[in-house]
Design goal:
single chain; 286 residues; Rossmann fold; 7-stranded mixed β-sheet; binds S-adenosylmethionine
Length: 286
C-alpha cells in the first residue's frame, strides 16, 4: 500500500499525494520538514504540513515572484528575499545580469542545507553566487536592524501561522517600506486567494495604509491547492504596475533569458483580478 501525504487545505478539503520515496523527515528548531518523491510532481518540500514547492511546478511561482517586479521596475540592482530557503527565488533573481546583490534572510538553516542536498535543481548553485549573501535570521528582525536599502523586497515565506506569522503584520510591512530604496517595490507570497481571502484582505489593509500604489497579481500553481495564488504588490511608484507591453517586451528581450511560464503578456494580465478579489480588497476596478 503506497504511503500518502495528506495536507488539510481547509475543513472538509484534503490535498493528497503519494509518497513514492520519503527522502527526509525532521522536526527542525522552527518547523516540521518533509522532503519526498512523488510520481507526478517530482521531489516535494512540505513545511508544517503545507506543500512549499515541487520540482515539477516551482517554475511558475518563482518566475512570477521575480520577473514581474524586476521587469516592471527596470533597474533593480539590490534585492532582499525574506524566506526562500529552497533557493529558487534566489536562482531566478540572479539570472538577471543587472543584479548586483541579493540578500536572502532565512530563519531555518535546515531548509537551506536540506534543499541544497535534496532539491538541488531549485537553487542550481545560487547560494554560491558571489552576488548572494545568505543571512540566518528572522525576516522582521533583519529588517528592523538593517540600514541597507533595496530596490526589490520579496517575501517568499511560509503562510502566516508558525515562524512566518509576523511577516504578514503591519510592523513587517512598515519595515519593508522603510527598507525600500526610492521607487522600490515589495512583492509578497499572499496565499491561495479563494481559500485564504482573509490573508489578501489583511495585506490589502496594511498596504493601503503604507503605500501609494498596491494591488495583487496571480498565477495558478497546481500544487497550491485551491486555485489561483495571489502575490501582493506594494510600491510608492504607481508607474511600475502600469508598464506598457512594449516596455516589458523590450526589457524581457534584453535579459536574453528563456522562461517556462513568464511572458510580458502574462505579466500584464496577471494584475487583472477576479471580481471576488476586487470586492475583498475594496477595489471595484484594477
Ligand atoms: N518558495 C516556496 C513557495 O513557493 O512558497 C516557499 C519558500 S520557502 C520554502 C519558505 C521559507 O520561509 C521557509 O524556508 C521558512 O523557513 C522561511 N521562513 C518562515 N518564517 C520566516 C521568518 N520569520 N523569517 C525568515 N524566514 C522565514
Amino acid at each position: 500500500m503506497t504511503e500518502k501525504y495528506r495536507e488539510r487545505v481547509c475543513n472538509g478539503y484534503d490535498h493528497v499525494l503519494t509518497i513514492d520515496e520519503r527522502l527526509y523527515d525532521v522536526r527542525t528548531d522552527h518547523q516540521h520538514l518533509l522532503i519526498f518523491k512523488n510520481r507526478a510532481f517530482g521531489r516535494v518540500l512540505a513545511l508544517d504540513g503545507v506543500i512549499q514547492t515541487t520540482e515539477a511546478d516551482e517554475f511558475i511561482y518563482h518566475e512570477m515572484m521575480v520577473h514581474v517586479p524586476v521587469l516592471a521596475h527596470g533597474s533593480v540592482r539590490r534585492v532582499l528575499i525574506l524566506g526562500g530557503g529552497d533557493g529558487a527565488t534566489l536562482r531566478e533573481v540572479l539570472r538577471h545580469r543587472t543584479i548586483q546583490q541579493a540578500i536572502l534572510v532565512e530563519i531555518d538553516p535546515s531548509v537551506i542545507d536540506l534543499c541544497r542536498q535534496y532539491l538541488p535543481n531549485h537553487s542550481m548553485g545560487a547560494f554560491d553566487d558571489p552576488r548572494a549573501t545568505i543571512v540566518l535570521d528572522d525576516g522582521l528582525h533583519f529588517l528592523q536592524t538593517t540600514h541597507e536599502r533595496f530596490d526589490l523586497i520579496l517575501t517568499d515565506s511560509t503562510d502566516p501561522d508558525g515562524p512566518a506569522e509576523m511577516l504578514f503584520s503591519r510592523p513587517y510591512y512598515a519595515a519593508c517600506k522603510a527598507s525600500l530604496a526610492p521607487g522600490g517595490v515589495l512583492v509578497t507570497q499572499n496565499g491561495v486567494a479563494f481559500l485564504q481571502l482573509d490573508e489578501v484582505r489583511s495585506s490589502a489593509r496594511h498596504f493601503n495604509a503604507l503605500f501609494r500604489d498596491w494591488h495583487f497579481f496571480t498565477a495558478a500553481v497546481p500544487t497550491y491547492a485551491g486555485g489561483i495564488m495571489a502575490f501582493g504588490w506594494a510600491s510608492d511608484n504607481p508607474e511600475l504596475r502600469q508598464q506598457e507591453a512594449t516596455t516589458l517586451q523590450r526589457r524581457f528581450s534584453q535579459t536574453g533569458m528563456t522562461t517556462r511560464y513568464y511572458t510580458p503578456e502574462i505579466h500584464r494580465n496577471a494584475f487583472a483580478l477576479p471580481q471576488y478579489i476586487l470586492d475583498a480588497i475594496g477595489k471595484t476596478s484594477p
